[in-house]
Amino acid sequence: MVYATGVVGKWYPNATIFTHFQHLQFLDLSYNDIGGWIMPQALCQLRNLKEWDLMWNDLDHDGLPGCLGRALPSLEAVYVSIMQRNMSSSSPLTALCGARNLSLHLYVMEPRGCPLFHNLESVDLADLDLNAWSPVVSNALCQATNLKELYLSENNLGDDDDIRSNSKALLCLRNLTSLEMLDVSYNNLNASSAFLKGLGGLKNLKELDLHDNSLTNEGLPSGLLNNLSSLEVLGMSGNKLTSLPTGLYQLRNLQELDLSYNQITSNIASLIFDNLTSLESLVLSNNQFFGELSFSIFANLSQLTEIDLSNNYNLDVDTESPSWIPSFQLNYLNLDNCNLNRKSHNVIPNFLSTQYNLRVVSLVHTSLQGIISPSLLYNNTSPKHLSLRGNHLVGQFPKMPFQNETTRLTFLDISDNQIEGQLPTNIGDFFPSLHFLNMSMNELEGKIPSSFNRMWQLGVLDLSNNFLIGEVPSGLSQNKTLLSQIILSNNKLHGMPIFTKMDRLANLRLEGNCFTKPIIINASSVRSLFMLDLSENYLLGYLPNHLPILPNLRVLHLRGNHFFGQIPESLCQMTKLHTLDLSNNHLSGSIPSCLNSITSWKKKSELQEFLPYFDQGFRRSSEVKINFATKGHMHTYKGEPLRYMTGIDLSKNQLTGQIPIEIGDLRELHSLNLSNNFLVGHIPESFQNLEQLESLDLSHNKLEGRIPHQITKLNFLSTFSVAFNNLSGRIPYEDHFITFDNNSYIGNDELCGPPLQMNCSLFENQPPRPKGNDFGGGKKKLLAKVMDEDLFFYSYVAICYALGFWGVIIPLILSKNWRRKYYRIINGCIERCREWFLRLIVPVVHSFDFLGA
């Protein structure tokens, strides 16, 4: 095997250099700008060559020696792109005219001078430049009398008139009597596509791939399937079928049938499966089938190995009645989101105990009830992949019934049920091969067994949303090289472990527990960590003591703890952060101006969602999620939204100082929340550069001045609040800012204009306030004399006391705004006293507790 890619500039290598590799089987010379060869005949000596990649070179008429087609008997596949148009008979492709069992993959071609496809058995023309299609190509295909495999996917054969004329030119394909496999997927074929009319003549066709077109039942040519009696594989997923295709039941040789992702709204007739006795794979998922389906209709399909009826939400599947005995041995069963065994108390299918080749069993959200049978987990019929998520299963987690029992499980998901009690202390010994374990959203109690340490293959562990207590076993946080996700959130755990030598740890979620001691992470040995969530715990102290520098971190959430002190500037060294949540703590000081060092907030950077390396096919079970507050609500982000979400939340702290103008550099930021602090100064005009901002909350601060008119150009801003500040002037009420109501501006007594009722003319025409009162000298003497009288003095005290008392009480009763300001001042005093107390007492506590250790 030889790779030689990436050479710059057109060149002509000497072909004799390859004669030293007589046993060479794979040769990759793509992307090299090769224009031809010196001594090209030397290539004909590579008689063991099986696969040759010449894509994206600059081959001319001397590109390949003419002997190749006859001299290389082992050659099975050639990948080549020819950019010249109107090529002559000396085209480099003519060198392959003598080849036979060759899979030819081309990008653009117009061969002349030889029947290029005459001897070929496989031709791949997928994803061609449609402008290169011509009658020459069609004629060449029509002469390929030995052709057995033809790939025409992604060529838009069903589009506009010009392409229809090309598909008409391909009607001669019906004469390719040797054709056994035809792939015309992703072509937008529909009722008006002339290409479909020629398919009925392919009498020997065994495999037909029509998936992801625009086919309807009315658009299928009449009798199409009736004429394809030799068909063994039929793929029609991703179309617009509303019923089962006519003639389907006559395909007695059919082995694989895929009608998934259509709009079929009918019953599944048993008559169809009476005739399809050769069926091995049946995929009818993601349709709209309804009614009742009894599994007994599959009883006599002895070749059946795969059944997928998932995501037919109105389909009732009954595996228990009438009584039947399966003649098949399944390796794949997926009934997700069907109604399973409604008449039989929603039991887990009993026929599974007779299936010895099971690889995957997925029964997600099927309304199952009862307990999990130990035989489903532990004996030799247990599958490798078992998912029972989102049902009503109860009881304790089953223990291994016999010591010598074995399990093949590598994937187990029993989340979102009502499994209760403590986990078996030796659970780690039960599943030596387990890669994925999800027991979240159950009612598990007790401690996490230390035997989890012996699950050496474990990659993902999710025990969140239970009632687990105690410490995290050290074996889950040290020397576990395969663990990539640890999700223990929303339990009652209190012992914070030390994380070290976790080479693949990417997702660490411990939020919603009772942790008090600082997390200890060895940053040098946890290099892959990209998500850290310690929110809603009882972590106490200065933030730098808890937060090592993790340069690859993308998500940092420390919301709802008891951190105080300043936000460390070292945080700015985590330049790949996408979301930062430090809200609802006791942080003080100013906002670091270095936040513009975080590049993912300045330049568009897609967060690569971390997926388990062992089970890409069931990504939903292990989908990475984050909880982040934006637009006034807590949202869960996953999948595509997670990839592009960016945000900063520093709300509900005691931050002071001005908002750094550098925040205006964060052009890719989607959410910014600085509310409920003590920030002063003006709203920076640089905020006009926050082009992607969707949510901006600056409420409950001490900001002053005008609202910058420039921020009305933030076209994506849908949530905006500057309520309860000291802002003044006219509200910039234009563009999409007219969608924000008065709740976005209340609590600013000197703001005016719509949507507030305050008229700006009242401020603009108001005379300047006097700087002081000027009393004449005589009046001052008279006032002093009167105030010496005892009666006046006591009367004055009583009146001042009454005015002072009711001057506070009446506004508190009548004005919600006054109450909020009053309570906020009192709360601020309490928090300052608390912070002073914590600063005084924490060093003493730490010296006797974990800091000393």
From TrEMBL:
Protein location: Cell membrane
Membrane topology: Single-pass membrane protein
Keyword list, A-Z: Cell membrane, Glycoprotein, Leucine-rich repeat, Membrane, Repeat, Signal, Transmembrane, Transmembrane helix
Gene3D superfamilies: Ribonuclease Inhibitor (3.80.10.10)
Transmembrane segments: 791-814
Main location: membrane
Pfam families: LRR_1 (PF00560), LRR_6 (PF13516), LRR_8 (PF13855)
SMART domains named in the record: LRR_RI, LRR_SD22, LRR_TYP
GO cellular component: plasma membrane
Superkingdom assignment: Eukaryota
Family from the record: Belongs to the RLP family.
Full protein name: Probably inactive leucine-rich repeat receptor-like protein kinase At3g28040
Organism (species): Nelumbo nucifera
Organism phylogeny: Eukaryota, Viridiplantae, Streptophyta, Embryophyta, Tracheophyta
